[in-house]
C-alpha cells in the first residue's frame, strides 16, 4: 500500500515553482538545490520529481529509470560541487524514528569540511 503523499509539502511546492530554490542540477526525474539552512559548506538536496514520501516508498514504487536517475544525479552533484574527491556524506531520513521533517524523499549531500563521526554511540 502506498504511503499518503502531502502535495503541499515544501519540496512539492518547489517542484511546481511556487517556492524558489537555488538550483544546482536538474534532470528529467530529479532536482538538486542548495539547502536554505546549510549544515556544512556544501549542503545540497537531491529530490525525485515524482511524489514519493521517503526512500522506502521510492524504492517500492519508482520506475527503474527514476531510481537510476536519482542516484546518478547524486554522484553528478557531488562531482560538480567539488566534494567527490575529498569526500562527502549522504543522508536520507526515512520516517519518524529517523526524524524525517519533509514527507518527500530527499537526499542530503554534505561536504566541504571534515564531517566527523556518522552518529554518536549510544
Automatic annotation (TrEMBL):
Q: Which PROSITE patterns match?
A: HIT_1 (PS00892), HIT_2 (PS51084)
Query: Which PANTHER family does the protein's record reference?
Result: HISTIDINE TRIAD HIT PROTEIN
* Every HIT domain range: 10-122
Q: Which Pfam families match?
A: HIT
Q: Which organism is it from?
A: Azospirillum thermophilum
Gene3D superfamilies the UniProt entry points to:
HIT-like
This protein's name: Histidine triad nucleotide-binding protein
Q: Where is this motif: Histidine triad motif?
A: 104-108
Q: Which Gene Ontology MF annotations are present?
A: catalytic activity
Amino acid at each position: 500500500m502506498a504511503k499518503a503523499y502531502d502535495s503541499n509539502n515544501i519540496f512539492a511546492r518547489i517542484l511546481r515553482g511556487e517556492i524558489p530554490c537555488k538550483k544546482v542540477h536538474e534532470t528529467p526525474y530529479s532536482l538538486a538545490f542548495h539547502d536554505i539552512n546549510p549544515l556544512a559548506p556544501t549542503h545540497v538536496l537531491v529530490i525525485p520529481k515524482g511524489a514519493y514520501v521517503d526512500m522506502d516508498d521510492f524504492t517500492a514504487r519508482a520506475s527503474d529509470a527514476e531510481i537510476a536517475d536519482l542516484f546518478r544525479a547524486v554522484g553528478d552533484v557531488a562531482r560538480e560541487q567539488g566534494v567527490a574527491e575529498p569526500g562527502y556524506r549522504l543522508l536520507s531520513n526515512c520516517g519518524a524514528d529517523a526524524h524525517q521533517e519533509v514527507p518527500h524523499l530527499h537526499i542530503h549531500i554534505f561536504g566541504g569540511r571534515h564531517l566527523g563521526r556518522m552518529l554518536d554511540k549510544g
